[in-house]
Amino acid sequence: FSLVSGSRSSKTFKPKKNIPEGSHQYELLKHAEATLGSGNLRQAVMLPEGEDLNEWIAVNTVDFFNQINMLYGTITEFCTESSCPVMSAGPRYEYHWADGTNIKKPIKCSAPKYIDYLMTWVQDQLDDETLFPSKIGVPFPKNFMSVAKTILKRLFRVYAHIYHQHFDSVMRLQEEAHLNTSFKHFIFFVQ
User: Fold this and answer.
1) Which residues form a coiled coil (predicted)?
2) Does the CA dihedral 117-18-25-139 come out positive or negative?
3) What is each CA distance from 36 to 25, 39, 41, 69, in whole angstroms?
4) Alpha-carbon distances, residue 158 vs 2, 76, 117, 144 (angstroms)
5) Do 17 and 9 form a contact (C-beta atoms < 8 A)?
6) Handedness of CA 104, 152, 115, 141 (dihedral sign)
7) How far apart are CA 68 and CA 156, in angstroms?
8) How far apart are CA 20 and CA 134, in angstroms?
9) How far is 185 from 183, CA to CA, in rounded Å?
10) How many Cβ atoms from other residues are within 10 Å of residue 110's Cβ?
11) 3: pLDDT confidence band, cut at 50, 70 and 90?
12) What does the alpha-carbon distance between residue 41 and residue 184 come to, in Å, rounded to a whole number?
């Protein structure tokens, strides 16, 4: 990215979720990055031979969270309460927030508020050792696949919002290639 000094809001978004170096998950992430480097996104999303599917999904979910976090972080100054009073991806897609715990009944909120709720919620899921165990041999919960699907479905909404509401800003920042590659990788993975 070419970052023009002074053009970024100084507030950082959510902390990056780090995968501990030397761990098996770290090795999987390195494998994913190496296959991504080949330019073959379809190959990059394939479960490596002999690897655990849940672990592969966990590592990639963390990676997509970090990517979306970074991409959205570049356009936060354009995504405001006034510019985006509702979380949408066009007139036919409006998203209301509910996490099932603190907010049970879906609420209508601005895009920045929705995305803040969403990314905080995802961060909490990723930090929950019972859902995303970081230690080798600790089993994933029985509902892991449905948790991961919900996270990925909700992260998709951030891509949708960026594309629909902020693509002009993405183009001005010359980030469209990065956004497009990240989104294509995401779509191949979830398929």
Assistant:
1) none
2) negative
3) 16, 6, 6, 19
4) 22, 12, 12, 22
5) no
6) positive
7) 9
8) 8
9) 5
10) 17
11) very low
12) 8
| Buried/exposed code over 162-173 (b: 16+ C-beta within 10 A; e: otherwise) | bbebbeebbeeb
Q: What CA–CA distance (Å, rounded) separates 146 from 61?
A: 13
For 67-72, which contacts have Cβ atoms below 8 Å and span 24 or more sequence positions?
Answer: 67/182, 67/186, 68/155, 68/158, 68/159, 68/182, 69/13, 69/14, 69/16, 69/119, 70/13, 71/162, 71/175, 71/178, 71/179, 71/182, 72/13, 72/115, 72/119, 72/158, 72/162
- Mind listing the pLDDT tens digit for each residue in 27-66? 666 656 655 555 678 888 888 888 889 999 998 999 999 9
Token duo for residue 127: 């930090």
Max distance between CA atoms of the chain, in angstroms, equals: 50
> What residue type is 100 in one-letter code?
G
Domains in the chain, please, with CATH? Answer: 64-190 (1.20.140.30)
* Known binding-site residue numbers: 79, 84, 161, 166
**Nearest Cα to Cα of residue 116 among 146, 90, 80, 144:** 80
Which residues participate in the annotated binding site for Zn(2+)?
A: 79, 84, 161, 166
